[in-house]
Amino acid sequence: MGRALSRTGWSTVIGMAVVACSAEPAGRQASVTPAPTQTAPVPTVTNQPTASAQPPPAPSSDPLRAVDGSFTATPPPKLTLFARSSIGASLSPDGKSAIMAASGRGATLRTGKTTQRIKVGYVTASKFNADGTRFALATEAGNVKVFQTSDGKLLRTVRGSRPIAFVDAKTIAFKRRCEGFVAAVNTQAPPKRLGKACGRLIHTSADYKSWLVAEHGRFRYGVLYTYRKATWTSLPDGRETVLIQATDKSPFLEPVMAKNGARLCFLDGNFSLHCLETKAPANAQRVWPLPGKPLLVGRDDPRVLRGPKLDESGSQLLFRVGTGEHSPHDVYVADFQANKVRRVTHSSREWWSFLPGGKRIVGHGGTDKLVVYDLVRNVRTDIGKPGEEWEGLSVFPGDDTRFVIGKERGGTRDLYLVELS
């Protein structure tokens, strides 16, 4: 296990404004007990950074409040075998094509009812372009290969790694160590260097020209990395905006940014959850424990667990609260527009995700059934049988009525198409 996380102070930084949050120091200990602390003031955000993002709708001035969810069970949806012996899939935006990564080397391209084996090494990432006519595979060997969807023809290979993205139908973007590059997919012209930003890459803008990178701290908490700074960097000109400033003694963890770049959330050293808007002037907001509630004081107290998720717009946050990763925990959705935190369920499922649009969430992992909660209609849909393990969610962009997910079978997975009503 890692060292204890003490929290003597951290701050959010927007432009040149810095407002620190302080708490009682606990020192470095051999255990992983969170440091005793006092309720810390919420940092204020006064200026706007340079992130290319649209802010979410402004919340009301009321503080977040807790509500309990109530859901009605519905009949199981249609379940169809999609692919055997695959660990996951990438789905084209038009829903007509899919890339399935094999349990071993290579991948399979499906277009309509036609399937084709793609001979590559171990696949680490896959991505379709916006119109589904091209797809890219990142391999364990450190190459990015671009293919034509209609016939599986290899168009070009470049040296690089994930995350990969298509900035338009004919241009692929990729990472090479600390540097970002773009390359045309229809020519063999050398890739164009965008710029450099070192650290763990958390998020990129749609054009790949701006990166949110986090600087690693000196130690880990179990499997979780700690960080001491989060910076939004414009690659072409090197301009930086520090969004979170911390230290090795008072780090932050699990940073996550909305797809549109509008909101950034993270855990502090006490496993309290905070969010800030990256565009509009606003106060950084403590989401959990709710404002007015005491911060955590001991290792057996419930705390926010790893893997918080923002929906695409940044207006909702999905997170878990419990005493440990493999113990039953509560699942919450914070709605920043309605200023409420809704308890959805008590569950042992390891992974939770929004479906596109943010109206539905999916819980999977562990030996509970696969489950879908509709947050608008207030209905719950259970899928599968007790004891089955479902993992590896793949979504159809813009479509919350269907998704693909894997069911564990020995050392591999079989993928199933789930079609919701």
What would you note in describing this structure?
The chain is mostly beta strands. It has a domain at 92-196: Neuraminidase (6 Propeller). It has no helices and 39 strands. The strands form 9 sheets. The protein has a 6-stranded antiparallel β-sheet with strand order 2-1-22-21-20-19, with no helix packed on it. Strands 4, 28, 29, 30, 31 and 32 form a 6-stranded mixed β-sheet that branches. The chain has a 5-stranded mixed β-sheet with strand order 5-36-35-34-33, with no helix packed on it. A hairpin with a 4-residue loop joins β31 and β32. It is globular, with a radius of gyration of 22 Å. Residues 1-10 and 13-61 have low confidence and may be disordered.
Shape: globular
What level of helicity do the residues show? under 10%
Spans of at least 5 consecutive residues whose pLDDT stays below 50 are: 1-10, 13-61
Q: How much β-strand is present in the residues? A: over 45%
Q: What integer is the average pLDDT?
A: 83
CATH class term of the domain at 92-196: Mainly Beta
Radius of gyration, whole Å: 22 Å
Spatial strand order of the main sheet: 2-1-22-21-20-19
Largest sheet: 6 strands, antiparallel
What fold name stands as the CATH topology of the domain at 92-196?
Neuraminidase
Overall structural class, as computed from helix and strand content, comes to: mainly beta
Termini separation comes to 45 Å
User: What oligomeric state is this?
Assistant: single chain
Compute the number of helices. 0
The CATH superfamily title of the domain at 92-196: TolB, C-terminal domain
Q: Mind telling me which CATH architecture of the domain at 92-196 this is?
A: 6 Propeller
According to DSSP, the number of beta strands is 39
